[in-house]
Write a structure and sequence with these properties.
- The protein is α+β, with helices and mostly antiparallel strands.
- Helix content is about 20%, strand content about 25%.
- The chain has helices at about 1-20, 95-105, 105-110, 120-125, 255-260; strands at about 40, 40-45, 45-50, 130-135, 140-145, 150-155, 170-175, 175-185, 205-210, 215-225, 230-240.
- The chain has a nine-stranded antiparallel beta sheet with strand order 6-5-4-3-11-10-9-8-7. The protein has a two-stranded antiparallel sheet with strand order 1-2.
Length: about 270
């Protein structure tokens, strides 16, 4: 009887440990169970963050693809299961054809190749870090690529005076989640290198949820009645850069794009 009781206690203990473990998202440790860092009662997201996903190549699921032939495997694209909820971007038929045209000429037409400001949400999941600085009334996000930045007021800033590359952001707290509504975009940015695009009717609602001290769950719901049949959402984690001596460094890419954009204007000798 004592042996049976011992076995039962052991099984119960293992089950309890397993139950706790299943509450922690894959890839995280028990650090996720520690209290979240806070600033004036709200989750403190100040820090250097980066997405480690393949979304900048293509938001949707895709196999590994080659880059320009002259570079061999240097610019090949990694495969991905995608970050679009439901798997597919709901294009209108005519817009789907435009997306395919974009894909065919992506190596020269992608706004990233021209060092244009990346727009929202693309700036978040490009393969570069970005810095969040949080205060009581405003949140600043600075992106390495093209020196892009956004100021997110937590009170009503009124309406945007003009359409912009990075849009016009208005933030608010929904419990412990930071919700940012962004509109007043121009139509000059893409969502990824695969040619997924939008019009100037785009609006984006972002949701930043700090799930542990070092992980933000990022969601963005995209609405554009000129291009899509309905709103659609992407979701992916953002990770705090925590290595020793990590710094926010600029990625000034304009000199790298001059040949692509203006090379045809060079005087022929």
């Amino acid at each position: 009887m004592k042996a049976l009781i011992g076995v039962a206690v052991t099984v119960a203990a293992v089950a309890a440990v397993f139950a706790v473990a299943t509450l922690v998202p894959a890839g995280e440790t028990t650090a996720a169970l520690k209290p979240l860092p806070r600033f004036e009662g709200k989750p403190n997201m100040t820090g250097l963050w980066q997405a480690f996903a393949e979304a900048n190549w293509d938001l949707q699921a895709h196999e590994a693809r080659p880059g320009p032939a002259q570079f061999g495997a240097l610019f090949s694209e990694p495969a991905s299961v995608g970050v679009v909820d439901g798997g597919q971007i709901p294009y209108q038929p005519s817009a789907s054809a435009t997306k395919q045209q974009n894909f065919a000429k992506r190596w020269t037409s992608d706004p990233e190749a021209k060092c244009y400001l990346p727009g929202v949400p693309r700036a978040t999941y490009m393969p570069y870090p970005f810095q969040i600085v949080q205060s009581s009334r405003k949140i600043l996000i600075a992106y390495a690529f093209a020196s892009a930045s956004r100021l997110i007021p937590l009170d009503d800033p009124g309406e945007s005076p003009a359409e912009t590359w990075m849009g016009w952001s208005k933030g608010r707290w929904d419990g412990d989640a930071l919700v940012v509504a962004v509109n007043s975009f121009n139509d000059q940015t893409w969502f990824d290198r695969a040619g997924n695009f939008h019009s100037d009717a785009l609006s984006v609602v972002e949701r930043y949820t700090l799930v542990s001290a070092d992980v933000i769950n990022y969601e963005a719901t995209i609405t554009d009645p000129n291009v899509f049949t309905r709103p659609w959402t992407i979701s992916l984690p953002l990770y705090r850069r925590a290595e020793k001596d990590v710094q926010f460094l600029e990625h000034k890419c304009i000199p790298f794009s001059e040949e692509l954009i203006y090379g045809h204007l060079r005087k022929k000798t």
